[in-house]
Every structure is written in structure tokens, then in C-alpha cells.
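[09:14] KT: can someone run the structure on this one? pasting the chain below
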Amino acid sequence: MIKRVLRKRNFYKLLGILKLQLEMIRRSFYGQNMKKIFVLLLIAIMYVCAHVSAQETLALNYLKYPPLSWEENGVMRGIMVDILNEAFQQRMGIKVSHHQHPWKRAQKLVEKGQADGFTTVPTPERREYTNISNEPVIVVDITMFTWTGNPSTGDIQAVENISGLKGFHLVDYLGNGWAKRNLAGLDIYWAPKMDNALQMLAKRRADVFVQNSMVTHYNIRRLSLQNKIIEIPNSLSRVSFNLCIGKKSPYANIIPEFDETIATMREDGSLQTIYDRYK
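[09:31] RB: done, C-alpha cells below
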């Protein structure tokens, strides 16, 4: 509660109360020494409060990954951006700035303490330099996609786990860390970007694309490929995206309060409302 009171939005109210209380104390005493004490106390309190009020904006990094996050006309948009704005700015009273970077750079800036955090899949490597929330910001299903009319559709529908993908020609894209970790050893063509991977699938140059169901549906619609690509909705995995705050950040200890806020947003339906905006 003390942390919340000392945040910027309550700074001037707090300072006014402290001034009033100290003035009452000063008027209760007479003599030059007490006046000096009052002045010193007031200077010290103003210094502390000013330091608190100058607390840096929470800088969060993202990669281009619509509908979870992307930059449009210089403004960050997406599910994760909306959730974190609601959690930090509206409910926790912390000003947030959002920045898109190439993914390796986005993470390196947090590791070096030049940015505060990002939201992604927790890994042991990321735990070395960030504190990670227990409450996920979003949980997604990893499913399969194939081209409409593929004669192997029945065989693909029978796949229940990743090992069942052996024998199929897959397409994925460079920079997909989940695919790199989990699809190793399979027959994969690595396209430069997700758009390229989906276009290859639509042109029947691969059998299967394995990816985040929500993200893939959004990009299929964006590329107008709804009639050329279908989903095989078997969930091969569930992946959570969690807030990661750098251990060098002044906000390194905010995770417990964030977890509490996200849990409340889940209970009151706010998270689902945000998810539904992007369907």
C-alpha cells in the first residue's frame, strides 16, 4: 500500500499533506532553532518525494507478432499491449512505454538494464536475468495448419503430439524460438517470416505449419488466405506468455503485485474482453 501511495499520481497530494502537517508543527513551537529544523525537514521531504515522482516510466519491449504485439503508425498495438496498459497504468498507477525491436535486441536491452521488461515464454535462460510472473498474460494452443484439400489431411488429423509429425514436410519461419526448440529433427523448411511460411503453405509447398492458433488465424485473415489454409485443431502444446522484468530494473520487485492484478483481471473478465477484441 505504501508503494502505491508514493507513486507519481499521488505525489502532489502527498506533498501537500506533508507540508500542512509540518506547518502545524512549526506553529506549535517558537524559536529560531525549531524554525531551522522545520526548513531542513521540509527540504528533505521534498527531495525524497521528488525522487519518487521522477521514477522512470516502465519501458516494455516487444517483437512484431500480431495480434499479440505490433507497431502501427508509431504506436504499439495488440493483445499484450492492451493487457499491460490495463494492468500497469489503469490498475497499478504506473506509466508504461511500449517499444518494438528485433527480438534479440529487445531481450538484450532488458538483460543490460536499458529497458525494463518483455512478455514471452519463460525459459531457464531468461530466468537468469529476469524475474518472471507466475500469472500468465496469455495462454495459447499450438495447433497444426495445412492447405485446403490436402489429401493427407486425414493423416494430419490423426497426429496427437509432435513426434507424430515425422514423415510430413513442415514449414516454419526464422526466429520462432518455440519451433526451434520443439521441432528439431523434423523435416522443416525455414522461411524468412511468418507471412512467407503461410504463403508457402497456401501454395501447397509444405504439408503442415505448426504455430500459435490465435496468431495464425489472425495472420491468415490479414493475408486473405482463409479459403486456402485450414486448421487441424489438435492441441499439440499449450504455451504461456509471462511478464519478465529485468533484475537490473527499478521495477524488479513488482512481480507479486502484477500477479495479483492479472489474477483479478482474469476473475472479473477483463482479460477475456481484451482477447475477444482480436478474434
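[09:33] KT: thanks! The chain has twelve helices and ten strands.
[09:34] RB: yep, looked fine to me
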